[in-house]
Amino acid sequence: MAVVKHVDGRVIREDRVGSSIDRLCYPGVSSCISITGVSVDKMIGAHLTIGTTVPELAQFIALLAAEKTSEIMNFYVVGKIAKFKESTTIANFNTRKKMRDFLKAQLEQKANVYFCDIGLLVAQGANICVFRNGAQASFSYIPEAGNLVVGSTYPNTVNYIEIPKASLLMR
Hints:
Layout: E1 5-6, E2 16-20, E3 23-29, E4 33-38, E5 43-48, H1 54-67, E6 74-79, H2 81-87, H3 96-106, E7 112-117, E8 126-133, E9 136-143, E10 161-162, E11 169-170
Parallel strand pairs: 1-2, 6-7
Antiparallel strand pairs: 2-5, 3-8, 4-5, 4-6, 7-11, 8-9, 9-10
């Protein structure tokens, strides 16, 4: 079982939770998902893998709840969603509807929940970057191969590809 940890900084690797006022990065998303909650004053995020267990999911939620400072207006689940859903062992987190209902019940009932399966945009693993704009977020990605995120340094996003807002589907 992995140890879920809170990180300082904007780079949230697997099995980590973090927060930022303006931007986050989830490196190496190949079979995992990122969950980003956005409020008017900050973002909170978690990087879950297909190996995440029920107790670890509870740890993620507890850490996210501790980070929350104001009402989350929007959640974004971005990553290799289809691969995650078919491989996860968490029965109450293996469909988009279950993910939506779980996030709303555990963290913020009134929030909108959006999904984007980057597997439809890029075949291999990718680094996902998030930028906060008020209580909303915009996303971009770059293939992980040849574009490694080093340490906890936020990457240069010049060559990142913006994920179209139309790809973020509310469920």
